[in-house]
Design goal:
The chain is built from six helices and five strands, in the order αβαβαααβββα. The chain is of the alpha/beta class. The chain has a single domain, classed as Maf protein. A hairpin with a 2-residue loop joins β4 and β5.
């Protein structure tokens, strides 16, 4: 997906968020701020974008987002469990935010481990509802080099966020 298409997805998500009066936050690891950049490339994003946290190291995931050491030890930094804790964690630090997305993965070219290939990215989605915090996760493996994996991860995060039921 190219930059124009990513910007279009971010604009659509911003419009949905604004229509609900919601604020958005993100917690990124492998995308290194690209999701926040896509969201803030849209004029008027201050109406619905609250914050982005880049938590590349495990220490940052723990101290900035409250990811549990046990989660990292048991499942690893690249896991749906960690992704959900990252999304929930950024919401806990952002009282104005209603919806959050997180990314954690292996963009390459190195870093693969058994069961976790280069291109694997885990996503977390979290929102506050009347019943409490709702989280979901997804995992995808994207082809290509580091740049392609990161761009595909941002595009997937945005398109999946648009489909997240509480946004309806």
């Amino acid at each position: 997906m190219n930059t124009e298409e990513i910007c279009h997805l971010a604009q659509l998500l911003g419009e949905r968020l604004a229509g609900k009066g919601w604020m958005f936050s993100c917690a990124e690891s492998c995308t290194g701020g690209l999701l926040a950049a896509a969201m803030t490339d849209t004029p008027g994003s201050s109406l619905w974008f609250d914050r982005g946290v880049v938590s590349y190291s495990n220490e940052a995931k723990q101290t900035l987002l409250g990811v549990h050491a046990e989660t990292l030890e048991r499942f690893g930094a690249v896991s749906e469990e960690t992704a959900m804790e990252m999304a929930a964690g950024v919401l806990s630090t952002a009282p104005r935010s209603d919806f959050a997305v997180s990314t954690t993965g292996i963009a390459g070219p190195g870093g693969a481990t058994p069961g976790k290939p280069v291109g694997m990215v885990c996503f977390g989605f979290a929102t506050r509802t009347a019943e409490g915090l709702v989280t979901r996760a997804a995992t995808r493996v994207f082809p290509g080099d580091r740049r392609a994996v990161r761009a595909a991860a941002v595009a997937f995060a945005l398109s999946t966020a648009l489909e997240f039921n509480p946004l309806d």
